[in-house]
Amino acid sequence: MATTTEPIDVSPQLSRVETEVRQSEDLIDIPIGLPREDREKTVYQLNQLLADSIMLKDMYKKHHWQVAGPTFYQIHLLLDRHYGEQVEIVDTVAERIQVLGGAARGMPADVAEKSQIAHPPRGREALTDQLTRLLQAHETICTYCRFIAKAIGERGDLGTEDMVVGDVLRVNEFQAWFIAEHLAPVPLENS
C-alpha cells in the first residue's frame, strides 16, 4: 500500500519586521551593580559618543576614497588605518551601551540627527580641508570624552569610564596627532 505524504513546507518563517521588542530609550535591568538612573544617563551620553564616532568613521572612509596630491599613497593608507580603528571604537561603544541595558542607536538617521560633528560636503575637497575637518571632529570627540568620563566616573561606573578614556579618548588623541603632523608647516624638500 502506497502512502502519500504531504509536502513539508521548508520556507523560512519570517516575522513581522515592524514589531519593536522595546523602545530604544527603554533600559533592561542588567545586574551589574549600577543604579538604573545612572545607567540611563550613561547610555544617553554613550549614544552621543556613538553618533559622533560613526560620523568620524565615515568621514575617514570618504576622505580615504577622495584623497589626492603628492602624498596620496601615505595619506590614503593612513586614513584607511584610522577608519579601521574607528570601526573598533564604534563597536566597543555600542557594546558598552548594550552591557548597560540600553539600545545602541547607530543607524544613519540616528547619526544624522544626533552627531555634533558637521557633515562634510558631498563633493571632493582639498587635502588640507579634509585633514582640518578630521582634526575638528577629533577635537569634538576628545572634548566630549573628557566631559563624560568625569561624569561617568563620579557615578561610580569605572568600566565605562575606563572604556571612554582607554579605548576612545586615547585612540582619538593619537589619530589627531598623526593628522596634525600632516598639516605641520615643514617643507617636503630641503631648500
TrEMBL record:
<dbReference type="InterPro" id="IPR002177">
    <property type="entry name" value="DPS_DNA-bd"/>
</dbReference>
<feature type="domain" description="Ferritin/DPS">
    <location>
        <begin position="45"/>
        <end position="184"/>
    </location>
</feature>
<comment type="similarity">
    <text>Belongs to the Dps family.</text>
</comment>
<keyword id="KW-0560">Oxidoreductase</keyword>
<protein>
    <submittedName>
        <fullName>DNA protection during starvation protein</fullName>
        <ecNumber>1.16.-.-</ecNumber>
    </submittedName>
</protein>
<dbReference type="GO" id="GO:0016722">
    <property type="term" value="F:oxidoreductase activity, acting on metal ions"/>
</dbReference>
<dbReference type="Pfam" id="PF00210">
    <property type="entry name" value="Ferritin"/>
</dbReference>
<dbReference type="InterPro" id="IPR008331">
    <property type="entry name" value="Ferritin_DPS_dom"/>
</dbReference>
<dbReference type="GO" id="GO:0008199">
    <property type="term" value="F:ferric iron binding"/>
</dbReference>
<dbReference type="InterPro" id="IPR023188">
    <property type="entry name" value="DPS_DNA-bd_CS"/>
</dbReference>
<dbReference type="InterPro" id="IPR012347">
    <property type="entry name" value="Ferritin-like"/>
</dbReference>
<dbReference type="InterPro" id="IPR009078">
    <property type="entry name" value="Ferritin-like_SF"/>
</dbReference>
